[in-house]
Amino acid sequence: MKTLIVEDVHFLGMILERIVEPFSMVEFAKDGSQAIDMFSKAVVKNEPYDLIFLDLLMPKIDGFEVLFHVRKFENDFNLDADKKSKIIVVSTFSDAENVTKARKAGCDGYIVKPYRKDKVLEELRSLKLIPSEED
User: Fold this and answer.
1) What is the pLDDT of residues 24-68, one digit of tens each?
2) CATH number of the domain encompassing residue 118
3) What contacts 10, CB < 8 A, 6 or more positions away?
4) Rounded distance, CA 95 to CA 55, Å?
5) What phi, psi does 32 have (nearest 5°)?
6) Residue 135 domain-assigned?
7) Does the residue 131 lie in any domain?
8) Could you give the CA distance from residue 29 to residue 48 in angstroms, rounded to a whole number?
9) DSSP codes of every residue in 28-96
């Protein structure tokens, strides 16, 4: 599995990396602009990310804009559903308005910070990115 962590707070990105590194190769983007660039280059090289953890509050380009660009790029590139990245939003926003907005924009999961290992692994299992505990 190949994962992109889009997080402007370095130590929060490192926490996510430690949780997913047993299952995935991890790369980082420090802001939305870098995330869009890394994502589009990966797709063009036919090496798309399987998973993207996406913070909503970031400098330059926020997470909602990144989400829009990623989904538009996937559609413009005619990626099959199984080739599209699973996107889990990680945010301090827990209100229904932001969660709904992210879901409508195309995220696959939503985790409220501070995140815990069990919650992250639960999301990965629900998206069938890692085996369930029974497997």
Assistant:
1) 999 999 999 999 999 999 999 999 999 999 999 988 899 999 999
2) 3.40.50.2300
3) 30
4) 15
5) -65, -35
6) no
7) no
8) 15
9) EESSHHHHHHHHHHHHHTT---SEEEEESS-SSS-HHHHHHHHHHHHHHTT--GGGSPEEEEEES--SH
